[in-house]
């Protein structure tokens, strides 16, 4: 079984006309999984709705705790891209857990987006890799601690 | 590096108004990879444009040959879903190759489709698994020989 | 109030994986109108599900009868594009009726399509024009009898 | 011939990951018209990129001047929805001009949006109506001065 933790980020952003604001809305993972015909057993635990630039150490501790306490050994985390690699590093050392972080540079609700593909990318990898922490972005699976987001270029790169 | 072989199937179907016909068109993988910001190095080899119900042993031999002769150790194959498991079984025993077959129940050109997600699913898994042949459908990675398509239910299941 | 008559055509085509066939499905107008926030009062009367190349005189007589018997003075008809102009000509001479035919070269269910735009085009025009019969295609409102589909070029032209 | 003036609004909003900001981007009308196969002759004049809550009298005077000076008699204006009716009222009394304002509650770049439909709605009506100023929203053509946006309900209503 798979646990999906949602923490916010661009992937779940939606436009609210009433406020003329662009905010993080309901997790889009359930809709994406349904439209993709995912039959794997999985559970959703919505934790946060934060832009990752606003994540705090307390937030990261909460995410770590949710991973540690989960019965599941496979965990997919959706997260804003700006500090995804920091959160990944904060999740090191949890035994028997394959943890995969992903997110998107464009919201899942957009017509042209990387969100759908990235969720598939993350799901394919999280069920295939041994325990550890990884990022799934730009079609690539990166081990945590060896990747950073190149903000100018708008992509993730190995370091 | 990754080799992508395209063989047809619903994933690449497109509607041609001039003929009032719904046929297999240009491979959609390049567009999907581009929109998803895939930075992994990869190469496209379009082999066939067939409905998988029309695949022959000669076709499967051609696919096997393309896998064997490729320099790449990671190979992603897009294929019609109806006989995907048969083709997977025909690719057994190629040393040092991680081969991932995927396809879709709805064309990539549809607004609601599993195609985009499945391509991500396959890409995440093909770079994560040891040599062997696998199918990526319905959010699940199946080893070849242990899966069949349940046509009534419209999904793949382990056997 | 507006009456919407659906008769088939590419606009409503959907892919059925179980049959590997591409067929005319449920009318897409209700979904399109809902997503567009249409608040105008309207009623749906699904008449046929035909490729317009297969329309007969009896079919056209049925469409004419539905228009004549409707209480509504504004009627929007979705129709296959191949013989849309023939059906339009068969609807001439119904007093106090503004009748607008439209359809699409790509299904409404496609990610890239003219279907959504054409339904808006037709709706904007049908509430704005005096009685008569018209076609709404390629961003243009054509009076019936003065338009034909250029099949090679895939567009409608005034004649 | 048709003149299209763009002034901003939600319809053209796009997400810029680099700034984590949701801003007004390039006008989407050209892409929408192209995908819809619009063959009508038309010209684009991008005037502003403003949220309509930030429109000033000077902005409205500029829009009016552009309408007055244009050779075209048919003018389609894309505009934010919040003060669309105010701008419409500021355009009254220009002889021989059929002016149609439209916009959207969701960006054209969204997968589910009213933008595409509304552009079709506006185009169908602007070529069908006599000189005057109108709004095209929620599937309805409203004469200027007789409509307001109900912000709580998120729709336009006749007054």
For this structure, the CATH topology of chain A is Rossmann fold
The first-level CATH class of chain A is given as Alpha Beta
CATH architecture of chain A: 3-Layer(aba) Sandwich
Multimer state:
homotetramer
Shape annotation of chain A: globular
Major beta sheet of chain A, specifics?
A: 6 strands, mixed
The CATH superfamily of chain A turns out to be L-asparaginase, N-terminal domain
- Straight-line distance between termini of chain A: 32 Å
On the 0 to 100 scale, the average pLDDT of chain A is 95
Radius of gyration of chain A: 14 Å
Helicity level of chain A, as a percent range?
A: 10-25%
Report the strand count of chain A.
10
Widest beta sheet: strand line-up of chain A:
4-1-5-6-7-8
Sheet-strand content of chain A, in percent, reads 25-35%
- What is the helix/strand order of chain A? EEEHEHEHEHEEEE
């Amino acid at each position: 079984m798979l646990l999906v933790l949602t923490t916010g980020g661009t992937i779940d952003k939606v436009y609210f006309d009433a406020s003329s604001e662009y905010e993080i809305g309901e997790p889009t993972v359930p809709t994406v999984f349904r439209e993709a015909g995912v039959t794997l057993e999985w559970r959703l635990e919505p934790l946060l709705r934060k832009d990752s630039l606003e994540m705090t150490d307390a937030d990261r501790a909460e995410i770590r705790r949710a991973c540690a306490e989960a019965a599941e050994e496979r965990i997919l985390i959706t997260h804003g891209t700006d500090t995804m690699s920091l959160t990944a590093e904060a999740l090191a050392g949890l035994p028997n857990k394959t943890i995969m972080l992903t997110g998107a540079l464009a919201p899942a609700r957009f017509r042209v987006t990387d969100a759908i593909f990235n969720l598939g990318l993350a799901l394919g990898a999280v069920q295939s890799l041994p325990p550890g922490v990884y990022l799934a972005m730009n079609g690539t699976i990166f081990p945590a601690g060896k990747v950073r987001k190149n903000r100018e270029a708008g992509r993730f790169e190995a370091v």
